[in-house]
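Could someone model zinc ion with this protein?
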Amino acid sequence: MKKAIAVIVAAALACAAGFALSACGQQSNGSSASDAESSAATSQAEEQFYIEPISDEVFERIYGKSFKEDCTLPREDLRYLHVLHVDLNGEEHEGEMIVNYHIADDVLDILRQLYEANYPIEKIRLVDEYDADDERSMEDNNSSSFNFRFISHTTRVSKHGLGLAVDINTLYNPYTKVVDGERIIEPITGEPYLDREADFPYKIDHEDLCYKLFTEHGFEWGGDWEDRKDYQHFEIPTAQVEEWYPSNE
Ligand SMILES: [Zn+2]
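Reply:
Sure, complex below.
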C-alpha cells in the first residue's frame, strides 16, 4: 500500500511540476492571468477617454449657459470630451470637458497622461453645472475650458469663448492682477494660494507635470505672464488662434 501511495504522490508531484512549468512558460510569453486582467483594466480605462461631437443631449445642457444665445462660435467647432481623473485621495472620477475641435486630441492626450500618472485633479465638470458662473466653478476647484464670452468692450471672442484655453485646479491656482492699485483675485477664495513659494496641494509651477504636458502640446501658461498671473490657465498662443479664426477681431 505504501508503495502505491508513493507512486500516486510522485505522479501528482510530476503533474504539479509540469503545470508550474507550463504556467511559467506562459508567463514568459506575457500572457499570464494577472497580465490579462491588468490589460483588460487598462483597456477599460482607455474606453473612458473619448471625443464626440456636441450631441443634442449635451447641447441642451449647455445652451443658454456656456453656449450663450449670442454665441458666435459654431456648435460644430466644439467637441465633448469624456475622461477619467483621480483626486488627491487617489479616488477615480469621470470627467467631462468641452473644447475646440482644433485641440480636442491634444487635451484628451494630456488628460489621459495626467490620469495615468495619478496627477490629482479634483473635478472636471462642465461649467454649465455652475450655470456657467466662472467664480462659482473656480471656488469649487473645477477644471474646465469652454465658456462663451466676448473680451470686455469688444466683439472679440475670448480664448475660453473659443474653447482654446483650459483651466486646471482653479481654486489652488488663482488669477490675479493689479488694476488701479487694487488687487483682483479670481476666485476670491483663492487668496491663500497667491503665495507660490508656499507648499500646498494642486499647485501648478514649472516642475509640474500639468505644466510640462500642456506646454509640450503648444499651450502657453498664464503663470508665465508678467502683467498678470493666471496660474490655472493654459491657452493656445494668439498667433495660432488668429490663423484658425482670422475674423475674430
Ligand atoms: Zn483660464
